[in-house]
Amino acid sequence: MLTDFDKRLLNRIQTHLPLATRPFAVLAEELGSDEATVLERIQALKDGGFIRRIGPFFDSAKMGYAGTLVALKVLPEAMADVATHINGYPGVTHNYEREGEFNLWFTLMAPNQAALEKILATVAALPGVSRLISLPATEKFKVSVQFTL
Amino acid sequence: MLDQLDKKIIAAMQDDFPLVPEPYQQIAAGLGISQDELLRRLASYVESGKIRKMGAVLRHREVGYAANALCAWIVPEEEIGRIGKLFAAEAAVTHCYSRIAPPDWPYNFYTMVHAHDREECNKIAARLSTLSGLQQYIMLYSTREWKKNSMQYFREGEETI
């Protein structure tokens, strides 16, 4: 179970990892704790599977990357092979089966538009894929995931 | 533009963040640069928006948010700005994008909704519909997660499979 301190720490660390020589001491000060306790709890929350990653989150467009959301119609018997192929691309960060006529949805990033389109063409031609639509973003209004615990 | 050191720093910052008292010192040492140089460059990425945030990503299922729905909307072109601001202000909406839709797929606006269960997701979408006046939307519930991880920029061999 998460303690009240864990929740306060998780709420804070989701967006406020300090850029300082002793970042965990800064967090500790804000939370009325000490550096060793903060480090110990973050390690425990990571080990316990509550924290997936710590660090900076980069803006893909400002990194020069091209990106899109892709939806596929995939035959059920081909699903596992298609999903596994898609997972092999390093620029795929999310790949979900979903209910509806398009039953596989993934996000794709690539270092440039040409590389992105090459991957889309390859995926569209996979056995069992009857349709691919690419839905590139025109405007991002919110991309920051934050949960209040 | 990003120089070679920037790319090296960005790649290194995607490794496990060291849970030690002086993590930036450790990362800088691995890159062969001073901690001051690393902190200065990271601060400049935050300043220019290259870094959207410094922080932790939680596993949403483990912290109690078990249901996630991709909600796709049909929004008139001239309404996109207004709807974007309206939806982005909602705490339950974690991602909110307008997108180019192909001719036979009318949904041009997407919100990701996280909640404790499916019923709560449906209620949130219904509330967004009432709030915005948008009637046409579908809930795309996930049935299986095949992959979920963080993007790795400037890694070797990223163009190929």
In words, what does this structure look like?
The complex is a heterodimer of chains A (149) and B (161). With 149 residues, chain A is α+β, with helices and mostly antiparallel strands. Chain A is built from five helices and six strands, in the order αααββαββαββ. In chain A, strands 3-4-2-5 form a four-stranded antiparallel β-sheet, with helices on one face. In chain A, helix 2 (23-31) crosses helix 3 (35-47). The longest helix of chain A is centred in the N-terminal third of the chain and has 13 residues, at 35-47. The two termini of chain A are 12 Å apart. Chain B is α+β, with helices and mostly antiparallel strands. Helix content of chain B is 35%, strand content 25%. Chains A and B meet through helix 2, helix 3, strand 1, helix 4 and strand 3 of A and helix 2, helix 3, strand 1, helix 4 and strand 3 of B.
Please work out how many helical segments of chain B DSSP would assign: 5
Count of extended strands of chain A: 6
The gross shape of chain B turns out to be: elongated
- Mean pLDDT across all residues of chain B, rounded? 89
Q: Biggest protein-protein interface?
A: A-B, 84 and 78 residues
Helix content of chain A: 25-40%
Question: Radius of gyration of chain B in whole Å, from Cα?
Answer: 20 Å
Instruction: State the helix count of chain A.
Output: 5
Kindly report the average pLDDT value of chain A.
93
- Strand composition percent of chain A: 25-35%
Instruction: Measure the end-to-end span of chain A.
Output: 12 Å
Describe the strand arrangement of the main beta sheet of chain A, using strand numbers.
Answer: 3-4-2-5
Structural class of chain B: alpha+beta
Q: Secondary-structure element sequence of chain B?
A: HHHEEHEEHE
Strand-residue fraction of chain B? 25-35%
Coarse morphology of chain A: elongated
Oligomeric form of this entry?
Answer: heterodimer
